[in-house]
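Q: How would the structure tokens look for this protein?
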Amino acid sequence: MKKLYFLFLLCSFIGFSQSPGDIVVTEYMNDSDAVSDTVGEWFELYNTTTSPIDLNGWTFQDDGRNSFTLTGTVVVPAESYFVMGRGPADTMVNGGVNLDFSYGDGVFTLGNGEDEIVILSPSMVE
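A: Here is the predicted structure in token form.
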């Protein structure tokens, strides 16, 4: 019983979120006027829970061909906003956005018209 309780505490502490709505997209920039899309696209996430959530193993995709899966520790603090962008974290280059994480150019692009941002946890909860 102690091992199961310890595993529960460990999972709760590092934020293994499995519920829809734990991480939500609150804002996005798909077609910046200030800089090109290759450095100016970004989206903002919000952690709706009271625990930090590690996005290691989470997949971000649209309904088409764009997707990326995070590898390594990327933590969204509890009840906090987190900005992910296509360009560099340098605000002098990316149009003035304070990025928390840069996923790089070419792995995930936002259409200038209609597009989607689908978030999947490691256990494929959307």
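Helices lie at 2-14, 37-40.

The beta strands are 23-29, 42-47, 53-54, 59-61, 67-69, 75-76, 81-85, 101-102, 118-120.

Upvote if useful.
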